Amino acid sequence: MKMIKEWFQKQNKYFLVGLAMTGLVLVLAVLSFFWTPYSTTSMSTSERFHAPSWKHLFGTDNFGRDIFSRVMQGIGTTILISSLIVLISSGAGVLVGAVTGYFGGIVDEIVMRITDAVNGFPSILLALVVISIMGSGKQNVILSLGIVFSPSFIRIVRSEFIRLRDADYIMRARLMGVRKLRILFVHILPNIFSVFWVSVTIGFNNAILAESGMSYLGIGVQPPDASLGKMLSDAQGYLGRAPWYALAPGLTIVWIVLGFSLLSEGIRRKGEK
Amino acid sequence: MIKVENLSVAFDGPEVVKNVSFKIADGEILGVVGESGSGKSVTALTMMGLVSESAKVTSGKVSYDKNILLEAGKPRDKALYRRYQGQKMSMIFQEPMTSLNPTMKVGAQVEEMLLLHGEERVSGTGRRPKSREERREIRRKRKERVLQSLASVGLQDPERVYDCYPHQLSGGMRQRVMIAMAVILHPGLIVADEPTTALDVTVQSQIIELLKKINREQKNSLLFITHDLNLARSLCHRILVMQDGCIVEEGTTETIFSEPKGEYTKKLISAVPGRTDKKKSAYALKREAHKNGQLSDEELKPLVEVRELNVFYRENANSLFGKSIRKHVVHNANFEVYEGEILGLVGESGCGKTTLSKAMLGLNKLITGEVIHHSNAPQMVFQDPYSSLNPAKTVGWLLQEPLRAQGLLEPSKAMSAKDREEAAYDMLHKIGLKDKYFVRKPSQLSGGQRQRISIGQALITHPGLVIADEPVSALDVTIQAQILDLIRKLQDELKTSFLFISHDINVIYQICDRIMVMKDGKIVEIGETQELFQNPVDAYTKELLK
Question: Which of A146, A151, A244, B302 has the most CB atoms within 10 Å of its CB?
């Protein structure tokens, strides 16, 4: 108990508030895979457009479905998709960034020009192009956004590796005869974590927004699966009649993004200490 | 003239300056000596009103001529200080690279002092000259005064310097510009905070001479802060010794050095590497035996031979189509490092010492000539203890890593995890650290402790040669003496050869068996320590030894 208290006192407020906000979201997301208060697909004509009440926390939608349950499921899908996007792009970032940053040279130049080209397009637009080639659907959203988000990770990891590759302790590791791969991933990588985690949380936020945006446009998650973006676009037609329908997923997105922003700010401040 | 009474200063937490009182008389040079963290800079900055807002004066006061500048419990009077700063008291900082504005021409920066405080200002409060001619005349006079002051600090061609940006000047020239700025208004007090620490030895002595000259001519007082007792000795009339925020001893320079009273002062004085007699090392005895014919050539073998080595340095190869320029840094180096010796390499910064050592290690591939190693891969110890250990790892991991790497390279030398840990503990004891440090991270260690670990890391695989690039330059004197002792001790024990690079001729004298002097990329002289000190041949060596 004492240890927990001490741990809390050591953290900064950004980190704690961010952790609480994202923690709540994550619990709901995990829970949604096993249980939701109501079925997310069962419709009922008698319960259409009920305002928020104790029975239906966020009200019901045009098919009489419980919005809270659907938001829970939406959080689940959104977070799952965003995590996979971040996993792909940050993984590519670490691998490519480490190699190009450490070795430099012609490969670095080529990779950097490619990332510049990718960065030159608005990310959503580029993802749209990828999807129009590969077709819509969850997997393709993940893959296309994963590709689109990679350059920023590559850049961040690369610049950190460039900063550290000539550090005295890396030079000494080279003299000790440490192999290159080991220098890259055992000696340098742990030193970029604080910067890396910040960019992961920021990337996660961007992924959530991008996924919601794409689902809103109807090319992401397909019905009857719930997704926050899809719900927003569905709610659009009933904005006057049932404002809670749009507010619930909208505010949830704000909540998630804010939570992760605070979390990343907290990590950044911890890293500075 | 300046009186500091019972001054105590605290940041959030304990006091860093405790009950400090001293006076500076007119025309006096007062030295404040102490190690880093002893509160000497904070004292000076508080006096000058430059200390950060978070510092609180908890007791005491500072007065200048009879005017009270600062008193405990009262907020700092900024307007009052502004009248004093620059005009009546001015400051010279340590780092000439960062204390000048890089985007302003040097002349304009010196002129600014006159614009802010001098009488020849064109704008600002007070009388405003009416006619254009009058203003032009004032401007011309002002520039003349700036040029005069630039010339008076020993800058040749002040006209050219006036139009230079700081990056176009060398460190010594920049420090001279700083001094010109400080003295242009003839302030009563100049505070110099380690003004020569960032400079080369030969430049250092020039700056000291300059400060003496200014003191003689302008008759102003000088508060000289330094960690270097020798410098204080050559410059100051009176010396204060500070430790942990307190003044532990005060006296004239002669009495401090001839009959130091405090324990700490004695320790400081004895830690200063002097040119006193030193014990002959095993290597020196061996060499003598060789000379007398008692030892065959076979037994005095070179460990590393450097033959006709030229080293180049490539600049600007970073962009795809950028032209790279090859700079010839080391010219025709020929020497050998013998088994079990400590070979010193002295020279000014930029003379190619580090480049040469990197070429010997194989870190620089742009070479002609050869480096022949008769033993396993050499290791290196760097100057900066803060950047030479991986901050993400623990001490134990760091000490084991060379063994792990060796095991991965040559499976025959692979060790079990347990043996490795034992070897690491063993080395930890050898470098004089306790078991508890095994799990610490570098950020939890002091500079001296880190440097010990660097040395341990270099020695754990028993390399034939260790290159130590200014290993003690970033450390305080007492720590410096400890590290030098440690290197000596380990060298005796393990019979490792060292190439010891330093700009400090006294440190070199203390520790090295033979000395190599380098200037502008050329090795100008090699010789045994005693011989070289007694009969230097080259003109540059003579200047260094002065």
Answer: A151
- Residue B238 in any domain: the answer is yes
Q: With contacts defined as CB-CB under 8 Å, which chain A residues touch B389? A: 169
Is B389 in the A-facing interface, judged by CB distances under 8 Å? yes
User: In the listed set B240, B271, B302, which residue is the last one of a domain according to the structure?
Assistant: B271
ipTM above 0.95, yes or no: no
Measure Cα distances from B220 to B2, B216, B217, B234, B369 in Å: 11, 8, 8, 18, 56
Instruction: Write out pLDDT tens, residues B78-102.
Output: 788 877 877 788 888 887 777 888 8
Residue B160 lies in a domain: yes
Beta bridge partners of A178: none
Q: What is the DSSP letter of B435?
A: G
- Considering only the beta carbons, identify the residue of B320, B377, B391 that sits closest to A175: B377
- Say if the Cβ atoms of A173 and B388 lie within 8 Å: no
Distance CA A32, CA A175 (A): 53
Q: Is the pTM of this model over 0.90?
A: no
Residues B9 and B145 in one domain: yes
Q: Which residue of A has its CA nearest to B466?
A: A175
pLDDT digits (tens, 9 = 90+) for A136-178: 778 888 888 898 889 989 999 999 999 898 888 998 898 888 8
Cβ within 8 Å, pair B401-A178? yes
pLDDT by 10-residue block (mean), chain B, 546 residues: 84 82 88 83 85 81 83 78 81 82 88 75 54 82 88 86 85 87 87 82 83 88 86 88 87 86 83 66 72 68 86 66 74 87 86 86 83 85 86 91 87 84 90 88 86 91 89 82 88 88 85 89 87 86 81
Residue B123 has what pLDDT?
Answer: 47
Domain chopping of chain A, boundaries: 69-272
Q: Which domain holds residue B149?
A: 2-271
Does B513 fall in a domain? Answer: no
Q: Give the 3-state secondary structure of residue B40.
A: helix
Residue ending a domain, among B239, B271, B303, is B271
The CATH number covering residue B92 comes to 3.40.50.300
**Closest chain A residue by Cα to residue B317:** A105
Quick one: B63 and B192 in the same domain? yes
CA distances from B141 to B144, B147, B196, B278 (A): 5, 10, 32, 58
Tally the domains of chain B: 2
The dihedral formed by the CA atoms of B393, B397, B402 and B406, expressed in degrees to the nearest 10: -120
Q: Nearest CB to B320: which of A109, A168, A182?
A: A109
Q: Which residues of B touch A178 (CB under 8 A)?
A: 401, 405, 408
Q: What is the model's pLDDT at position A92? A: 93
Q: Is B118 exposed, middle or buried (0-12, 13-18, 19+ CB in 10 A)?
A: middle
User: Among partner residues B392, B401, B402, which is closest to A191 by beta-carbon distance?
Assistant: B392
Per CATH, the architecture of A69-272 is what?
Answer: Orthogonal Bundle (1.10)
